[in-house]
Recover the amino acids of this structure.
């Protein structure tokens, strides 16, 4: 169902600031990435979102298009970011039908709860491949178009504004904060997100001279998202135990991630690259424990119990860490 503007965008942004710009987004049918794209479309952009699920991706594209009359939003399913050929075809379609790529959001990711004792090599590799290899693949394929956009739209380095209203050639990777401190049952994700942060930093260094910026947005616990459904039983029941540990005292909103996206892609982000923008209400500063606060540390790890009650849980024989 289409969202109301106040659910995905603050009122401070001027309509039309992204007119004729094109955003390409992996993971665009997800809760957070769809809100990011929806905000850009509302402000004038056209978009192409890709995902593995055909029906879900096409349905979300139609939903996002309601953000602005006359917008063009492509939804391309059956795209696996681990597969270069499927990604290349979707990029080619985006460029052919929408005219180029000015902004890239790399948001495809895998996540589930699993203690190291219950984390198989295949499960670990799957998250590495989706997060790190997938982000690398889409970056590699989109960069020629992003460089062309930066050359076309950005001003000379002596001016603090773009030459055509808003800049081009910008990348946002959707990361996390858990690798800043480490987090039980999230070893696979922590390693993957650390790799994405490193990728973003190196893209910023190598492509900054060509006018391309590369930044991280690291969401904290965001309410109403598929990601938190996989991490927290309390989140699904509307509990407040976790929110009390967040310095700002509440769960985040998808609108707050979308606003951060607009900030980095608009003129306000002209001199920001190689940075990590954490949008988490200060949660990572006090996040010792477990994702969502449902599984008490270290009791749950030592028990060898199965993760249950959250999306993506799989039944398997438990092995207590004390017996490894």
């Amino acid at each position: 169902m289409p969202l109301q503007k106040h659910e995905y965008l603050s009122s401070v942004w001027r309509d039309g600031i992204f007119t004729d710009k094109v955003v390409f987004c992996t993971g665009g049918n997800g809760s957070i990435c769809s809100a990011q794209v929806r905000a850009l479309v509302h402000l004038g952009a056209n978009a192409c979102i890709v995902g593995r699920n055909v029906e879900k991706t096409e349905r979300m594209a139609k939903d996002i298009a309601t953000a602005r009359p006359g917008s063009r939003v492509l939804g391309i399913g059956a795209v696996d970011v681990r597969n270069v050929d499927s990604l290349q075809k979707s990029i080619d379609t985006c460029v052919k039908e929408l005219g180029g790529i000015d902004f890239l959001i790399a948001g495809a990711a895998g996540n589930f709860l699993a203690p190291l004792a219950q984390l198989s090599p295949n499960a670990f590799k799957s998250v590495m491949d989706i997060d790190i290899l997938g982000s690398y693949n889409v970056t590699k394929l989109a960069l020629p178009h992003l460089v062309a956009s930066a050359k076309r739209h950005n001003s000379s380095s002596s001016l603090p504004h773009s030459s055509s209203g808003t800049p081009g050639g910008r990348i946002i990777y959707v990361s996390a904060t858990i690798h800043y401190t480490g987090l039980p049952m999230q070893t696979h994700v922590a390693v993957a997100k650390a790799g994405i942060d490193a990728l973003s930093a190196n893209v910023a260094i190598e492509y900054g001279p060509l006018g391309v910026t590369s930044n991280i947005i690291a969401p904290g616990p965001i309410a109403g998202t598929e990601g938190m459904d996989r991490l927290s039983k309390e989140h699904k029941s509307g509990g407040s135990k976790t929110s009390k540990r967040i310095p700002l005292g509440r769960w985040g909103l998808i609108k707050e991630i979308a606003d951060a996206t607009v900030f980095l892609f608009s003129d306000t982000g002209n001199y920001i690259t190689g940075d990590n923008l954490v949008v988490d209400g200060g949660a990572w500063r006090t996040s010792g424990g477990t994702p969502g606060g449902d599984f008490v540390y270290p009791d749950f790890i030592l028990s060898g119990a199965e993760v249950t009650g959250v999306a993506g849980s799989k039944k398997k024989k438990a092995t207590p860490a004390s017996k490894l």
Remarks:
- The beta strands are 22-26, 46-50, 73-76, 103-106, 170-174, 213-219, 276-279.
